[in-house]
Write a structure and sequence with these properties.
The protein has six helices and twelve strands. It is an alpha+beta fold and 267 residues long.
Length: 267
């Protein structure tokens, strides 16, 4: 029996639709949030904590991975805000249901000060101490090996680079990049980098790294006012492994920085 050509074409069309839908469903997206939280204190109301508001924002946005900067752990400063010493990442983990990790960059106020990660699910965490060729305040990067629902693994790092010396920022960018290259996994890194897009440190970031907030994305300050602030908070990704889906700077006033929300798709 000869099958009409119209039915053959319809069959091939439906197969094409099915394979396209499978390709779309099998591709994985990762939502990243980077936020300098000003040690969990409302910058406009000294002594007033805001971890519950930050946790509510995270619960609303549902990012897979969160990089936080200016994080206190068991400091007298946190006691002055919350009435007792607090591990901010542990508290945020309890409030959100995420897994939290604190990477201490330095001793501070009888406790620690550094970077934090929140992960939806579990991960393998590590702290990388960053170089200080120009001296100044110690800095660190918090790393996690994160397993996606498909079983594929990626690397994610959150950091806060030196605010004093360009020499340090350049060396710290290089250290993070070398660590990512050594790991040989698709990598994303984010944080308050204390550098502007026209700086030497920014231009030192080479290779396949892509700034999620670069052109043609409209310029959006991440620090200061929305009218004349600076863009110093970033999400960088390996453009050979990921595609940018969405980039947003959220006009949220829980800190002196704005949160940066990025959605990526694993190639």
């Amino acid at each position: 029996m000869k099958i009409p050509q119209s039915k053959i074409l319809l069959f091939l069309f439906l197969i094409g639709l099915g394979s396209s839908a499978f390709a779309q469903s099998s591709s994985e997206t990762i939502k990243i949030l980077s936020y300098n939280i000003f040690h969990g204190e409302n910058p406009n109301h000294q002594g007033v904590g805001n971890l519950e508001e930050i946790a509510a924002l995270i619960s609303e946005l549902q990012p897979d991975l969160v990089a936080m900067q200016e994080v206190d752990s068991m400091t007298t400063r946190s006691a002055g805000v919350y009435g007792e010493k607090e591990d901010l990442m542990q508290k945020l983990a309890e409030l959100t249901g995420y897994t939290g990790y604190f990477a201490k960059a330095m001793d501070f106020a009888e406790g620690g000060y550094g970077e934090g990660l929140l992960v939806k699910g579990n991960g393998k965490f590590e702290t990388q101490n960053l170089p200080l060729p120009g001296g100044g305040e110690p800095r660190a990067a918090a790393w996690v090996t994160y397993e996606l629902p498909s079983g594929k693994k990626i690397k994610f790092a959150g950091t806060h680079l030196c605010h004093q010396f360009e020499e340090n920022r350049i060396a710290q960018v290089e250290a993070v990049s070398l660590r990512a290259k050594k790991e040989k996994l698709p990598t994303i890194w984010a944080g308050d980098l204390n550098l502007k897009p026209d700086s030497k440190a920014y231009k030192s970031i080479k290779g396949s790294w892509k700034d999620a907030g670069a052109s043609p994305t409209p310029y959006s300050p991440t620090y200061g006012t929305m009218e004349d602030g600076a863009r110093i908070d970033y999400v960088w990704f390996d453009s050979s492994k990921f595609t940018l889906v969405d980039y947003q700077v959220l006009n949220v006033l829980h800190s002196d920085h704005y949160p940066v929300l990025v959605t990526l798709q694993l190639k």
